[in-house]
Design a protein that fits this description.
By secondary structure, the protein is α/β, with parallel strands linked by helices. Helices cover about 40% and strands about 15% of the residues. The strands form 4 sheets. Strands 4-11-10-9-8-5-6-7 form an 8-stranded mixed sheet, sandwiched between helices. Helix 1 crosses helix 3 and helix 13 runs parallel beside helix 15. The termini are far apart.
């Protein structure tokens, strides 16, 4: 630990006080191992006896434990209950809100509402969480080992590993009809970073961007935090309709394959209308194809990118939904004229995404294991979807209307007999029963027309889904 030495106090006392303060503040956690006396003496440029004196005092007062040959550790129970730091340089620590000035961006970001993480809830219907089977996990572990055998430890290319970009281009053409070369693909740290880089590269504060209403709140909050004017455009039973001639804006952000959160699919005519609008307005279309791998009814439509003839579409995707959220690998497919600038924007943001996971994912795709996982996951999620729809219908009957169930890994249940004001108490009561529920209201810029809940089913098996819905039904009736 770095200790600032100076002043009239003996060196061993200064070191003792620095370690004691770090322990009381929690910066050295209970059970943490301390450096050896020799290592700490070399680090601070003092005699080893000085360190031994400081350690001995801390052991005597109960802050440290240890013995010769076993190392020195922070005690699991420290002798003082208060973790408040002592006064520094004779000045008492001030309590209360920080006076540090935030930028305009920081103030806007502070107003964003981050949805709760209820991962410890037993019956958690969180959207966007997938749970791979044991076969996929074993294949992923093998891919990680293979990637580690030939991984360069140097900085990587900001656009991503060439092997992964080639695999993504082939995967998109086969599964989504997206026409692109590997040179038009840039790997990002999830789709959220992709959207952030797009916003940073294309827009100035005050520019107008059209989003769906309701819409993915991560995109809306991001655009608002960047100082953009977000124009919420309503979604109907056929999804988003840009209108003719359409609003004045620099871009529109759409989820056409499986509108988030309502789940409706945008028909071909509306996709073509968006492209015509973008060409007429000299605008771009941000197409977020976040969970297009899962479709259970009807024929999938081509991505808007496939229909683009004028280089107006920026296609965004992610592997977080089809594999697991922790992977944090997404991608952007760009018109050729924008690639070089986007790569520089990516370099400025984080140099490059982690190389190890990129190589492993490329191996998983190239080996065919990823495609096998998709087939298994599609069948597994279809069974979970059927169990969820059946449980909601059996337990609640006419009290719910379901929408958006033909694709993806979530659906929306609109509550026909619960007013908006009564939804939050139901969510809290269900949480007490071990059920994690998520209202659709955060995805609306305005007040939603009625109360609804978003049910994700990618992380629960059929039995847990049925039990979770039974418990939810009890809270709704009580």
């Amino acid at each position: 630990m770095l200790v600032r030495l100076g002043g009239a106090a003996p060196l061993h006392l200064q070191i003792y006080q620095a370690f004691r303060e770090a322990i009381l503040e929690g910066r050295l956690a209970p059970g943490a191992r301390l450096p050896s006396s020799r290592a700490e003496a070399r680090s601070l440029g003092v005699s080893r006896n000085v360190i031994l004196q400081a350690y001995a005092q801390l052991v005597a007062e109960g802050y440290l434990t240890g013995s010769v040959g076993s190392g020195t550790y922070v005690a699991n129970e420290i002798p003082e209950v208060s973790l408040r730091a002592p006064a520094r340089h004779g000045h008492p620590r001030k309590e209360g809100p920080s006076r540090i000035h935030l930028s305009a961006y920081g103030k806007r970001a502070a107003d964003a509402t981050i949805l709760p993480n209820r991962e410890r809830v037993r019956y958690n219907f969180a959207y966007g969480v997938s749970r791979p089977d044991d076969t996929t996990l074993r294949q992923w572990q093998r891919a990680l080992r293979k990637a580690g055998e030939r991984l360069s430890l140097d900085y990587g290319p900001p656009e991503g590993e060439s092997s992964l970009r080639e695999a993504i281009a082939a995967h998109l053409f086969k599964n989504r009809g997206v026409r692109c070369s590997a040179s038009e693909v840039v790997v990002t740290s999830g789709s959220q970073q992709a959207l952030s880089l797009i916003s940073r590269m294309f827009f100035e504060p005050g520019d107008a961007v059209i989003v769906e209403e309701p819409s993915y709140q991560g995109a809306r909050y991001l655009f608002e935090s960047d100082g953009l004017r977000v124009l919420a455009h309503p979604v109907d039973e056929d999804g988003f309709d840009i209108g003719t001639p359409g609003p004045e804006a620099r871009a529109c952000y759409v989820t056409p394959s499986h509108q988030f959160p309502t789940g409706v699919t945008m028909p071909l005519a509306r996709r073509l209308k968006i492209l015509a609008w973008a060409e007429a307005r000299d605008a771009v279309v941000i197409e977020d194809d976040y969970d297009s791998e899962y479709r259970y009814e009807g024929r999938p439509l081509e991505a808007i990118q496939r229909l683009d003839r004028h280089g107006r579409v920026i296609y965004v995707g992610t592997f977080s939904k089809v594999l697991f959220p922790a992977i944090r690998i997404g991608f952007v497919v760009l018109p050729p004229s924008l690639v070089a600038t986007f790569i520089k924007t990516k370099w400025l943001a984080d140099r490059h995404s982690p190389r190890f996971e990129q190589r492993a994912l490329a191996e998983l795709i190239a080996s065919g294991a990823f495609e096998q996982h998709q087939r298994r996951a599609r069948a597994r999620n279809a069974s979970r979807r059927a169990a969820l729809m059946e449980a909601l219908t059996n337990e609640l009957g006419g009290a719910v209307e379901l929408s958006g169930a033909n694709a993806g890994i979530h659906l929306v249940a609109w509550l026909t007999s619960v007013p908006l004001s009564g939804l939050d108490p139901i969510v809290e009561k269900a949480l007490a029963e071990g059920v994690g529920l998520y209202p659709v209201s955060p995805y609306y810029a305005a007040t939603p027309p009625r109360g609804g809940l978003l049910f994700g089913y990618g992380n629960l098996d059929e039995d847990d889904i049925r039990e979770g819905i039974r418990r939810f039904a009890r809270t709704l009736r009580s």
